[in-house]
Design brief:
single chain; 104 residues; mainly beta; Lipocalin; 9 strands; globular
């Protein structure tokens, strides 16, 4: 399932709704990507697709320093799942693709 493109994410966190832009792209048989918020742009690590499931990790410094693990299910141009930061409870993540891959 292609996941490339630009995705607008909404993350429901204890400090309010956070928005980010996810950009996964193919790289030498694998995937790489970035996530951008109004505060910073960070690289994604351990980016993986298994069927309709997309997972990745990222570290942020704003609004606070956190290491996040995302686990979402992609259905067409929408995704839904969770983001987890350490021992904190998982938070809901939703997203919509705004710029499909040229391969889709």
């Amino acid at each position: 399932m292609p996941v490339e493109g630009t995705w607008n994410l909404v993350i429901a966190t204890p400090v309010g709704r956070q928005q980010a832009v996810l950009r996964p792209f193919p790289d030498g048989g694998g995937l790489r990507g970035t996530a951008t918020s109004e505060a910073e742009e960070v690289p994604l690590s351990e980016l993986s697709v298994d069927g309709d499931r997309l997972t990745w990790r990222q570290s942020i410094t704003k609004p606070m320093r956190l290491h996040l693990a995302f686990d979402v299910v992609v259905r067409g141009d929408q995704l839904a799942g969770t983001a987890k930061a350490g021992r904190l409870p998982a938070t809901k993540v939703t997203g919509r693709r705004t710029a499909p891959s040229s391969d889709s």
